[in-house]
């Protein structure tokens, strides 16, 4: 039972890490669960197809060539479906969805190998596969998601080219991995397999960071006062990676619960900005209409949450990274003392703190 727990826990922990990197949570949790479910279905289908194909090509060629091709096609079918839907915003989502599908596939494959292994080798099999094969499966399918997401706004043959590019990258990683494992050189083979597994995760993380950098550029374009987002709020959204540090004053003055509300508010702003950019880029009128509806829903949710957060807390948030040219200090002075300017020697934050203490 301990070996089974390890075989399941390691891939899921790496999936949680990949999901955690998505600062704006643009990919929905429901879709991740859908990809996990598809990964399990893909494993069953691959098992049937591989069992049939091995009769014609033999086990050696199946392992080193045919199985990687079959499995990468089957694992990625969910991504081909999702890339045309509004939950698939950009290739950050593609990387996470692909990693989820590959992880679920690997979980069932791990359990199959544990069933075949003896009790004395079960833990070793779980650990070695957890840090090698499982990560390879997740990373390979993530490459398909990256390719689809990177070119999802292409017109004409660009979409088909993105799929072929993603499949080529995934199959190359998978075939290389299987050929290394099939070399049967003991600890050296195990070490190389783990390096390839961890390297695949590293490549996935690198793509996510690249995608996040592009998404920040999108947010600079889309989060404007015309969309109901102040310049101060937009400036904080640009620094979501440092949110714990940036929102420390909110925790100090308003409490942890209010901080959670503010974090949710900023995340909604980011999601709205990304949806607006996707709406502008998509060549599909139906998808653009769906995205427009989601943008409107997000704006309503933001407005409600802004009221819950309150004017004084929002003033703190907008002042964290005040953009050049915004009359933030004047507005805060008016909010804290609408009848008279602050006395000499009395800071603006001191005035705001006194008002808060009176509440």
Task: Tell me what you see in this structure.
This protein is mostly helical and 359 residues long. Helix content is 79%, strand content 0%. The chain has two domains: 2-209, no CATH class; 223-326. The model is unreliable at 323-349 (pLDDT under 50).
Short description:
The protein is mostly helical and 359 residues long. The protein is 79% helix and 0% strand.
Ends apart, CA distance between termini: 56 Å
Helix share, percent: over 70%
Task: Please state roughly what percent of the residues sit in beta strands, choosing from under 5%, 5-15%, 15-25%, 25-35%, 35-45% or over 45%.
Answer: under 5%
Could you give a short account of the major beta sheet? none
Shape: globular
Structural class estimated from helices and strands:
mainly alpha
Rg (CA only): 25 Å
Got a strand count? Answer: 0
Number of spatially distinct domains: 2
Mean pLDDT: 85
Unreliable spans are: 323-349
Give the topology, please:
Layout: H1 2-20, H2 29-82, H3 91-116, H4 122-130, H5 133-150, H6 158-181, H7 187-222, H8 231-237, H9 243-246, H10 248-254, H11 256-281, H12 285-309, H13 311-319, H14 328-336, H15 348-358
Task: Using brief descriptors, characterize the structure shown.
mainly alpha; 2 domains; 15 helices; globular
């Amino acid at each position: 039972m301990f070996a089974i727990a390890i075989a399941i826990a390691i891939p899921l922990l790496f999936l949680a890490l990949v999901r955690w990197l998505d600062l704006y949570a643009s990919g929905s949790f429901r879709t991740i669960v859908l990809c996990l479910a598809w990964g399990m279905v893909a494993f069953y289908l691959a098992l049937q197809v591989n069992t049939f194909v091995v009769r014609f090509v033999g086990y050696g060629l199946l392992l080193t060539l045919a199985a990687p091709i079959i499995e990468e096609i089957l694992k990625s079918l969910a991504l081909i479906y999702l890339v045309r839907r509004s939950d698939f915003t950009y290739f950050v989502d593609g990387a996470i969805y692909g990693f989820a599908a590959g992880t679920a596939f690997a979980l069932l494959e791990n359990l199959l190998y544990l069933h075949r292994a003896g009790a004395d080798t079960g833990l070793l099999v779980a650990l070695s596969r957890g840090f090698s094969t499982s990560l390879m499966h997740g990373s390979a399918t993530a490459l398909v998601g990256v390719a689809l997401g990177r070119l999802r706004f292409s017109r004409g043959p660009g979409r088909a080219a993105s799929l072929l590019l993603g499949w080529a990258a995934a199959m190359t990683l998978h075939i290389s991995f299987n050929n290394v494992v099939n070399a049967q050189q003991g600890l050296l083979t195990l070490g190389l397999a783990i390096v390839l597994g961890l390297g695949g995760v590293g490549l996935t993380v690198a793509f996510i960071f690249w995608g996040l950098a592009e998404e920040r550029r999108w947010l600079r374009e889309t989060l404007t006062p015309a969309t109901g987002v102040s310049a101060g709020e937009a400036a904080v959204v640009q620094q979501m990676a440092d949110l714990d540090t940036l929102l420390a004053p909110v925790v100090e003055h308003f409490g942890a619960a209010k901080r959670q509300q503010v974090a949710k508010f900023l995340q909604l702003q980011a999601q709205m900005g990304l949806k607006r950019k996707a709406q502008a880029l998509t060549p599909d009128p139906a998808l653009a209409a769906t995205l427009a509806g989601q943008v409107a829903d997000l704006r309503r949710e933001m407005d409600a949450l802004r009221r819950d957060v309150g004017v004084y807390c929002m003033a703190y948030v907008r002042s964290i990274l005040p953009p050049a040219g915004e009359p933030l200090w004047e507005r805060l002075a008016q909010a804290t003392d609408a009848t008279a300017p602050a006395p000499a020697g009395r800071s603006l934050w001191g005035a705001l703190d006194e008002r808060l203490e009176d509440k």
